[in-house]
Amino acid sequence: MNVAIKDAEDRIRDLITHTHIFGGWPKDLVDTLIEGAQLRRFADGELAVRSGEASPQLALVAKGAFICRRPHKGGAPIIFDYLMPGQATSHIAVFDGYPAVFDIASRGESEMVFIPRKALLAAIALDPNRLMDFVLMLCRRMRIEYENVFMRTASSVRGQIARIILYWLRGQDPAAGKLRVPVGVSQENIAAMLGKSRPTINKEIGAMIKEGILARRYRQLEVLNVKALADIIEKESPGFLAQSIPIFTKPDGVLNAAD
Question: What is the value of pTM for the model shown?
Fold first, then answer.
């Protein structure tokens, strides 16, 4: 598929102004970003960004979800993350000019906005202080990655699953009760993210379902007990959640998963 959606300026503007990194940018800078920006639709499994190739544009998920993955010589790709609406990718490649590190593949029919490097740099030139918005976003992402490294070397499989699920729930209100992972994620996909076998993941998720922590609804994971997930993490990494609160705090009106 990979088709450009025509007359999409209003949708592009709405996405940009509701994304965490651009939420506070004035209209003239947003206008500059929109110049040359495209909204494109992708079929299931289609690549929006290909690893090893130049990616001279910032990409923002507009609808659906994308899988951030890396090919593996063993056959099945290694999954790095799921990208939800409002999340950015290629934010490093758009600045340093080096090729993209991951394949970004559509999960179901999805849409992505592409902002050309030229438009992004032109907007920053109008207000150089806005470069700090990217610095802060990259700092947040680095904190997440540092924790991921620690998680995969020091946490139990149960703790790793709890962290990933809470990460996917960011932006949702725990007081709302039952929370649902925004995209259908298979146990095989979770295994690919954590470098574990599928039976190992099945066993841990099955135990959480029996304990009343999780449930499956329409191929999606539903969290019935957020506190229980938090307790699993706190037991293995005391203080981690309290330290992570600023990472997930979002201004009012910003998309839940926005970076």
Answer: 0.86
